[in-house]
Amino acid sequence: MSHPTSLPASLTLAPGLVYHPGYLGRTAQEALLDEVRAVTRQAPLFTPRMPRTGKPFSVRMTNGGPLGWVSDVQGYRYQADHPDTAEPWPAIPPVALEAWNALSGYALPPDACLINFYEPSARMGLHQDKDEEEFDAPVVSLSLGDTALFRYGGLDRRDPTRSVRLRSGDAIVFGGPARLIHHGIDRLMAGSSDLLPQGGRLNLTLRKVKKPV
Ligand code: MD6
Ligand code: FE
Questions:
Q1: pLDDT of residue 1
Q2: In angstroms, what is the span from residue 140 Cα to ligand 2's centroid?
Q3: Rounded CA separation 56/182 (Å)
Q4: pTM of the predicted model, to two decimals?
Q5: Residue 135 CA: which ligand is closest?
Q6: Domain with residues 11-207, CATH architecture
Q7: pLDDT in tens, 17-56
Q8: Ligand 1 binding site (Cβ under 6 Å of any ligand atom)
């Protein structure tokens, strides 16, 4: 009989859905936070709006990389420039790129790093990440700041769901048969992390958008 003395490095929550609790230690979280602040100085957080209705998201966003994900009355899409400043997106934060290289199992770099900022009351409805052309690449997700209650289900929106608490430093990878499952953020646990001085949460998702040529 073995006597494990540490937590497992990763947990497969469903086929293709791999959770890496505590992937980034405190020092790496602080380095990534500094890198995100550098991105937001160049590419300020914007308020995305729902296609058709124009209803604002409660989450604010920015991006790093050649492409960024945006949403407005026209729809969801990837574009090379910031919707408010029309400037190109800054580079993907290096600590996030290292996580992609370690966790994605994909040979090419990501095209986009979407950065979501949640105020304590923000949430994100159940959705699929399906605006990319390349579904052979996974989505790699990193969390910083307050713990979030993350809900995930299946390919059908009506499939049963489960929840996992994503804490500061956790990584989660959506690949293979889990690449297109539904997921969302139900709520934050206010005051659960002291990484962000004002509270709230940052989530970074790395994506390969374009089919390799
Ligand atoms: C969030 N995450 O954690 C929202 N999408 O704030 C996502 O929407 C997400 O964590 C695709 C893959 C992993 C994710
Ligand atoms: Fe998503």
A1: 54
A2: 10
A3: 21
A4: 0.96
A5: 1
A6: Sandwich (2.60)
A7: 999 999 999 999 999 999 999 999 999 999 999 999 999 9
A8: 116, 124, 129, 139, 141, 150, 172, 174, 183, 185, 203, 205
